[in-house]
Amino acid sequence: MRILTTGSSGMIGSALVNVLTNEGHEVYSLVRPGSNRQGIQWEPGRSVEDHPHLNNLDAVVHLAGAGIADRRWTKARKEVLWQSRVEATAHLRAELEQRPSPPKRFLSASAIGWYGHRDHDILDESSTPGHGFLADLCAAWESAAQSNQMSVAHLRFGLVLDRSGGALAKMLPPFRLGLGGPLGDGRHWQSWIGLSDAVRQLKYLCEAPLDQVKGVHNIVAPEPVLQKDFASALGRILRRPAFLPTPRWVIKMIFGDMGKEALLASTRVMPKRRLKSGPSFLTPKLEDALIEALGRSSR
């Protein structure tokens, strides 16, 4: 297959490109102007290089965008998030639709923040949307990806686990020092997935029949956990205590709305469609996923 990716230098994108390439697919990447990586130049929201590899694509996997939980959501940061996800996605989708032969499928990243804070509700792809900036961002992001010419998959990612990046990499330093623990009271639900399983699901959606691609897909493991149990599991694997909580008021004071919506929101999400069809999960249990994510040499 001929597959185009964005965000290919990120944790998920780089792992996906390696798997697809090793299996013999032709994989091309969109890269920013001036990048030292090889690829087709794309300035998000402005221009895409007119390149022959953009024709006759079987799939596009769009993962690029500024990190949602990287920093406090100031007004300027919210604008960056909106531009890099909503506006950039709309621009890329429009550019692809204008090709003489548009791609057959467009797999576009989203996030389980679409559901908002839902306490102990069990959520799946048919659940109603949530409220708040993150929920609104995800809704607009998915709307920007909609197309009448391509089969669009909205990939609602949970916390993707790997030591090389994402939230887990940020958690490791304090946990290794024995200073880790739950966020707030730790009684909110956390939906997660191991990196290998996330890549397996994306690879499947690149290759699956089109009628199995279109629509929403929760890219999460089938066993969400309470945040306090996540902290305990990470502490056990690292052989460190994990009982020092970060109070809710401290998280809200430091991170504002980002802390409230991205760190303390309770989202108990099930991958209903991914369980119905597609590959089985390699690490459906959290401890197995964390062991794989950390690797024995890193503990």
CATH topology: Rossmann fold
What is the overall silhouette?
globular
CATH H-level homologous superfamily name = NAD(P)-binding Rossmann-like Domain
Sheet with most strands: 8 strands, mixed
- The secondary structure category is alpha/beta
What is the helix content? 25-40%
The total count of helices amounts to 10
- Give the overall pLDDT as a whole number: 95
For the record, the CATH class is Alpha Beta
Describe the structure.
The chain is an alpha/beta fold and 299 residues long. It has helices at residues 11-22, 75-97, 133-145, 166-176, 195-207, 227-238, 248-255, 257-263, 272-276, 286-294, and strands at residues 2-6, 26-31, 40-43, 47-48, 59-62, 105-111, 122-123, 151-157, 159-161, 189-190, 192-194, 215-219, 225-226, 268-269. The chain has 10 helices and 14 strands. Helix 1 (11-22) crosses helix 5 (195-207), helix 6 crosses helix 10 and helix 7 (248-255) crosses helix 8. It has a single domain, classed as Rossmann fold. The chain is 38% helix and 18% strand. The radius of gyration is 19 Å and the shape is globular.
Name the features.
Rossmann fold, 299 residues, alpha/beta, 38% helix, globular, two-stranded parallel ribbon, 8-stranded mixed β-sheet, 18% strand, 10 helices
Q: What is the fold's blueprint, element by element?
A:
Elements: E1 2-6, H1 11-22, E2 26-31, E3 40-43, E4 47-48, E5 59-62, H2 75-97, E6 105-111, E7 122-123, H3 133-145, E8 151-157, E9 159-161, H4 166-176, E10 189-190, E11 192-194, H5 195-207, E12 215-219, E13 225-226, H6 227-238, H7 248-255, H8 257-263, E14 268-269, H9 272-276, H10 286-294
Parallel strand pairs: 1-2, 1-5, 2-3, 5-6, 6-8, 7-14, 8-12, 9-11
Antiparallel strand pairs: 3-4, 10-13
